[in-house]
Design brief:
Elements (H helix, E strand, L loop, with lengths): L3 E2 L8 E4 L6 E2 H9 L10 E8 L4 H13 L6 H11 L2 H12 L7 E10 L12
Parallel strand pairs: 1-5
Antiparallel strand pairs: 2-3, 2-4, 4-5
Helix pairs in contact: 2-3
Length: 129
Amino acid sequence: MEKLKLSQLSDDVEVSIEETSTVYTVAELKAEILDGEPHHESPNWYTVTRKRWVPDAHSMFDRYIDCEHDDLYEDWNERAWDCIEKESAVSKVQKILDEVFKGDHATAYWTYENPVEIDIFPNGINDTK
């Protein structure tokens, strides 16, 4: 995949060094580089896409029942689902999960998309490549 040039990206595009926890907008990154920060020395910059993990109570029950079913009797999983659906437990647990995971601490994440070539350098430094 061809690298995108930092100088050609919109200022609001978000970028990060692979496997780090800091995200910059292109504008922030350009400003820090021009102020002398050595960000241009890292070869692993990527555009990022922010995402959000959302808990799913139905999936949670499904996986748990699947796991337990192997140790129990035939058709146990069907009986287990009958119990859960009668009490509308899925919706009750979903409300709890939504409350527990309402913040960004465990739900916000990003994926690395396109590699970025840093073609902007601190004042007084030119690329020698």
